[in-house]
Design brief:
2 domains, mainly alpha, Hect, E3 ligase catalytic domain fold, about 210 residues, DNA_bind_recomb_sf, two-stranded antiparallel ribbon, two-stranded antiparallel sheet, DNA-binding, 9 helices
């Protein structure tokens, strides 16, 4: 039964009993009440499905699967059990792109600008993430500041919202999810380039 049908049937029950129903916009239960009730039911169902999605994402992350768009340097593979049941997506390192990422970190650590790094990639004819038109300083900055390259995945805000149960909250409020198999650079090098990136974000260096 749809929320609209249920709302109409409930409204008819109120009408048959002679009860008067007050709604936010109208006092006539025969006209506005079904629509008001339908809207309330629809809102509640939307919240219910949102919680289910977050719980599902939390479960995927806890089991080692990934729940976001693929990052540069990796390939996505679906895990399918015997019988055809699709259980999640795992990432694996794309070594050809990992070589480029290590070079980007090394050059940035040595003091090369984000803009120069982007220029090198464009001159080499390397395809940018997401199939964009080219590499920009901001593109390089996003890569160098992504913790996945040091083996940690941090869910986006749509995943990390508070869920209903204590278990969901504990999972979604963790500081991150270890993905050591996806590590491309060491912690020392990753952290070494973060402060320079933070300083130049919003400056001329990252403006495309």
């Amino acid at each position: 039964m749809t929320s609209r049908t249920f709302a109409k049937e409930l409204a008819a029950m109120f009408s048959a009993s002679g009860m008067s129903v007050m709604t936010p916009h109208e006092t006539d239960s025969a006209t506005k009440f079904p629509e008001e009730l339908r809207r309330l039911i629809a809102d509640d169902m939307a919240r219910f499905h949102s919680v289910r999605i977050r719980r599902g994402m939390a479960s995927q992350l806890e089991r080692g699967y990934m729940v976001s768009a693929i990052a540069f340097g990796y390939r996505a593979e679906r895990t399918v059990l015997q019988g055809g049941r699709d259980v999640g997506t795992v990432w694996t390192v794309c070594e050809a792109e990992a070589v480029l990422i290590r070079e980007m970190y090394a050059r940035r650590e040595a003091g090369e600008s984000l803009r120069n790094l982007a220029g090198r990639l464009n001159e080499a004819g390397i395809s940018p993430p997401g199939g964009g038109r080219g590499w920009y300083a901001s593109t390089v900055a996003r890569i160098l500041s992504n913790p996945i390259y040091r083996g940690w995945f941090f869910p986006g805000r749509h995943v990390a919202k508070v869920a209903t149960s204590n278990r969901d909250q504990a999972c979604l409020h963790r500081s991150g999810f270890a993905r050591e198999a996806l590590r491309i650079v060491g912690d020392v090098q990753w952290f070494a380039v973060q402060e320079p990136i933070a300083v130049v974000v919003g400056s001329d260096e990252t403006r495309d």
